[in-house]
Amino acid sequence: IACVLSGLPESIIAAACARSGQRVLHVDSRNYYGGNWASFSFSGLLSWIKENQQKTDTSDECEDWRKLILENEEVISLSKKDKTIQHVEDFCFGDQDSAEDVEEAGALPKLPIFGASGAEGVAQESEKECPPMESALPEAESQEPEKATGTKPASAMKGNDTEITSENESCHSTALGESAPELGKTEAAPSEISAQERKKITYSQIVREGRRFNIDLVSKLLYSRGLLIDLLIKSNVSRYAEFKNATRILAFREGKVEQVPCSRADVFNSRQLAMVEKRMLMKFLTFCLDYEQHPDEYQDYENSTFAQFLRTRKLTSSLQHFILHSIAMVSETDCSTLEGLQATKKFLQCLGRYGNTPFLFPLYGQGEIPQCFCRMCAVFGGIYCLRHSVQCLVVDKESGRCKAIVDHFGQRISANYFIVEDSYLSESICTNVCYRQISRAVLITDQSVLNTDSEQQVSILTVPPVDLGKPAVCVIELCSSTMTCMKDTYLVHLTCPSTKTAREDLEPVVQKLFNLNTEKESENEELEKPRVLWAVYFNMRDSSGVDKNLYDGLPSNVYVCSGPDSALGNDCAVKQAETIFQEMFPTEEFCPPPPNPEDIIYDEDEIVPEESGFSNSPETKPQPSTEESSSGGSTAVKKEDNEE
Q1: Which residue in 271, 313, 381, 433 has the most C-beta neighbors within 10 A?
Q2: Cα end-to-end distance, the chain, whole Å
């Protein structure tokens, strides 16, 4: 199997193929994992911005690769320029004085920092400047060396986090309530902050603390009962990452940000709702949980929008707003009644598994998830090559199947199946494809959009359309305990389907929620808003949902994966990965759990000789150092995985 690019769908497919015993080569022309699913330190993001603003062409390093093509073969050239990112604009609203000569703390001189997640850099800095945090892994595991195959180990450090476990352990898995007071015990309460002068964060501080940031290109959350969580648990890949609960759901109504009660306890403890409204809301949410059993209540409205259906349910305007924008999180104009009921049911079913909200967020950013699956692939023998571009696909004229790829060194690499990300396909192949676009903005701010007693909040907010015909904007605000930003700052992600450039789509929402003025403000309203310190806007291609038949001239054994979509969850990527895997190997199980050490039976022929560090006795465990450096057969890989 040859996989080109290491985005989330490709990484899942690579891990599934390696786990089923296939030989996998995973190459990526970039020098970081994840593609458009990656996370960057602040300096890494600045380098990414510069690359996408310049859009320089990459020249062939080897001009003789065409000599490798035989007479009965033809080539499908791959694109060398990434056109998935457009309209990149970055702005600094803080004080830039003396920031030019400031270097990122812990950075190597004269080397650009491209940490795909920045987890290692943050871990090193944390050891120097932060109190030690307890590791989620046993001591022997947290000290294991990096894989010989080249995959970067997923971070083992924890903040205020949640460990994903199986269903029967879920009630004991959340450490949120225990660790939150310790992390926030030195923080000032909002009343104290308002009494003091707001702490000023300069641009030079952000640059200096750049490795504290892990900034995602794509902003998503994990539904606690979603396909990705189920896959992480089933495959045991969840042990490579740590997660934090999204602590609150917010709504933007009448110019103010409010917290939405979504669980039963939240509803009855809420001071925003009258007692009558509480009963109305609980009655409707109970109906949504088993709406299929009561078709007579919604059949007459199947052709209506969900917003129109809500108006018939005797709900107040505030309840309709909460349900539409903060619970179902659907469009007011385009979502049908059935789609709205399904979205509401999904939200409610995910409540309570790991916390009071349906969502989890991976520590160090969404870019950790592709790396976790890459690590699983490497554990089972997959080979990874970054900074390794592919010139073309080699196709047999008679059979029409792809036989090999030719890389930028002029090497010909044969494989049976080929996984290619959509961005690598040339314009001649994609002439019939019509792409959508996603508008993205990332802000660094100095305080939360809704201050409470605890500053360590992970919030999700849906802002209704500013104008008619505009899409709603999803806002995800991350605190420093998610390991995505420095202390005393917040990382805010804004996402919506594009109608214009990202700045035109999102700046009106930014102006409503935040203070963009660099001059000293005189209005109290502006002083209360969080101040934007730095911002970047960009448009990202949404290639999800494209039928393979729309790609002209692709061989049957070449499978195309899409980039990130605009949805909040990751179900599209998981479904696509499973569909492609089942097309290639219909009889194999998709990402089965790794075997327990007690269940492995070793044949004498498979035992590695003692001089390589393994004993002939299956009861004797290998030494970790030898185990990591060994690149033997499947037995050594299985032992290696179990020891981890």
Answers
A1: 381
A2: 25
Instruction: Give burial (CB, 10 Å; 0-12/13-18/19+) of 470.
Output: middle
Retrieve residue 640's tokens: 């290696």
**3-state helix/strand/coil string of 126-184:** HHHHCCCCCCCCCHHHHCCCCCCCCCCCCCCCCCCCECCCCHHHHHHCECHHHHHHHHH
Of 135, 389, 345, which is closest to residue 241 (Cα–Cα)? Answer: 135
Q: Residue 161's closest CA among 538, 484, 631, 490?
A: 484
- Closest alpha carbon to 477 in 520, 509, 508, 524: 509
pTM: 0.80
* The residue to which tokens 């990591």 are assigned: 628
> How many angstroms separate the CA atoms of 339 and 430, rounded?
31
DSSP assignment string, 573-591: HHHHHHHHHHHH-TTS-SS
In whole angstroms, give the CA distance from residue 417 to residue 516. 50
Q: What is the CA radius of gyration of the chain?
A: 25
Q: Coil, strand or helix: which one is 459?
A: strand
Residue recorded with tokens 């790991």: 354
Say if residues 119 and 154 touch (Cβ distance below 8 Å): yes
Kindly indicate the confidence band of residue 180, based on its pLDDT and cuts at 50, 70 and 90. Answer: very low
Grouping H, G, I as helix, E, B as strand and the rest as coil, residue 619 is coil
List CB contacts of 284: < 8 A, sequence separation 6 or more: 313, 315, 319, 323
Per the CB < 8 A criterion, the answer to whether 475 and 491 are in contact is no
pLDDT in tens, 275-301: 998 899 999 999 999 999 999 999 889
CA dist 129 and 280 (Å) reads 51
CA distances to 14, 255, 357, 465 from 326, in Å: 35, 15, 11, 13
Secondary structure of residue 466 in the 3-state scheme = coil
Sign of the CA dihedral with 293 first, then 298, 303, and 305 last: negative
Tell me the per-residue pLDDT of 111-132, one tens digit each, with 9 for 90 and over: 333 333 433 443 344 433 333 3
- Interacting residues of 177 by C-beta distance below 8 A, sequence separation 6+: none
251 phi and psi angles, rounded to 5 deg:
-135, 150
**DSSP labels, 16-79:** HHHHTT---EEE-SSSSSSGGG-EE-HHHHHHHHHHHHH-PPPPPS-TTGGGG--TTEEEEEBP
Q: Pairing relation of β-strands 25-27 and 39-40?
A: unpaired
179-192 mean pLDDT:
39
The burial of 210, by beta-carbon neighbours within 10 Å (0-12 exposed, 13-18 middle, 19 or more buried), is given as buried
Domains of the chain: 2-54+62-82+364-434+544-584 (3.50.50.60), 263-350 (1.10.405.10)
By three-state DSSP, how is residue 643 classified?
helix
For the chain, the average pLDDT equals 79
| Core vs surface per residue 333-368: b (16+ CB within 10 A) or e | eebbbbebbbbbbbbbebbbbbbbbbbbbbbbbbbb
Distance CA 494, CA 489 (A): 16
Between CA 92 and CA 531 the distance in angstroms is 11
User: Two tokens at 250?
Assistant: 């917010």
